[in-house]
Amino acid sequence: MTTMLGLISTAWSQLNPKLLASMTTSASSKPLYSKAKKTVQSWVDYDSKSHQLNVTLAPCYISKPQIPLLSTTVNLSSLLSLGPVYAGFSASSGKGSSGHYVLGWSLKLDGVAQPLDYTVLSIREFESHGPNYLIRGAPSIVLAVFLIVLAVLICRHLRKAKEDDDWEIKCGMPSFTYKDLVTATEGFSNKMLLGKGGFGRVYKGVLPTTTQHVAIKRVSPESKQGKKEFMAEIAILGHVRHRNLVQLLGYCRYKQELLLVYDYMPNGSLDKYLYDKNTPTLDWARRLHIIKGVASGIFYLHEDWEQVIIHRDIKASNVLLDDDMNGRLGDFGLARLHDHGVDAHTTHVAGTWGYIAPELARLGKATKATDVFAFGVFIIEVVCGRKPIGPASTSGDLLALADWVRGTWQGGSIIDAVDSELKDYDTTEVELVLKLGLLCSHSLSRLRPCMRLVMLYLEGGARLVDFQPASLVAGGREDEKVDEAVCASSATTVTIISGR
């Protein structure tokens, strides 16, 4: 005989009398009603020999009734032979609302269960408070959960702060006080504003401690990637030094403010000289000088530094001009670096439409070849004075600049694509730069020259093999000539001295 004695408190509005009446045996017993907040006791007896299961229910403090509430025959031997016996409780009130709480239980195998000691079960206190008896501890539970969550958040904040501190120590860049930068920009006034971009605004400033003229980029709080780009730019520009790269002087982190301090480029960005009618037109000698300077800077990033740096956003507006109109490549917020001889990781597509290589848009993998593509579009832009994507001359549909130049070349002479504002220029040099730009922006990455070859072509150290515009169409038989030209030049051992 197996017996289980349980003490159960109910929080029913009223137990369904029809339900209990249907459970009552055929003996002359009355239906049992359970009012709210009343504790009842139950007995469950099972005889493994006769397979008789009896369930008896009665109010608390009353002896076990002689007649069970439920009596049935059921073979539980297959369940009892599975291993250890566990006691549990489950209840349902049908459509009524209810709450059930087990206050105590006693189990005995092969015998009668030991009676419960009601004096230690706080029955009357539970009945007087009902469910509130259990709910009284809810504020403590909520407080405990709150403190745990708060502790987790504090730990994360401290860990993040430590990571930021470690990063600042590792980057080794000087930091400026927020007060000095506010003073330098006259409170970030609009009259000191030089321009704005996707990650914030750039202000002109004069450092109060040294009277040095600087450019201060204030990262926009609305930029979701602002801090990531901020840290990337410091990590990269904090270590590289080259005369054709914008020099980062330091940074400032104050509360939610992120600021970068650069050398001031008094002549602004190159794009205004190409498109602003109120700005003097650059002559060919100056344009070629800027192109060579930017090429030298990219070569340094790709080949001449301790790691490979992929800029990912080469364009005219990111080329700044110093006092001597030297071109300096800036805005390294999107740049990524990796070791030499190691493939770049796939990432999200970044850059500016018109400068994005086909394989970058398709695969999301930035490489040296995708930078070369952007450089090719850039030098065509400088020669033609046109934006990388613009309306076709006849249909008005948008057309990539490289496609427009190739079409112009097929229709007559490639020189016809030169900026109409450009007067005195060397035809041979212009033709070389345009063809090199088309080759660099070829749709097939394997047909683009590396920056080492680009430098050789621009400096006259290697001759660009002649090819026709049909060679630039991917998949055509003529593209083999371009392939031969690139491979032939690649086979030449060269040494380039890059100014720093």
Describe the structure.
The protein is an alpha+beta fold and about 500 residues long. The chain has three domains: about 140 residues, no CATH class; about 90 residues, Phosphorylase Kinase, domain 1, CATH 3.30.200; about 240 residues, Transferase(Phosphotransferase), domain 1. It has 15 helices and 16 strands. The strands form five sheets. The protein has a five-stranded antiparallel beta sheet with strand order 4-3-2-1-5. Strands 6-7-8-10-9 form a five-stranded antiparallel beta sheet, sandwiched between helices. The longest helix is centred in the N-terminal third of the chain and has 34 residues.
CATH class of the largest domain: Mainly Alpha
pLDDT average, as an integer?
A: 79
Helical percent range? 25-40%
Beta-strand share of residues: 15-25%
Question: Which architecture of the largest domain does the CATH hierarchy give at level 2?
Answer: Orthogonal Bundle
Note the main sheet. 5 strands, antiparallel
Tell me the CATH superfamily of the largest domain: Transferase(Phosphotransferase) domain 1
Q: Count every helix, treating DSSP H or I runs of 4 or more residues as helices.
A: 15
Strand order of the largest sheet: 4-3-2-1-5
Total number of beta strands = 16
| CA gyration radius, whole angstroms | 41 Å
**CATH domain fold name of the largest domain:** Transferase(Phosphotransferase), domain 1
Identify the overall geometry: elongated
Distance from N terminus to C terminus (CA atoms, Å) equals: 95 Å
SS-derived structural category:
alpha+beta
Number of domains: 3
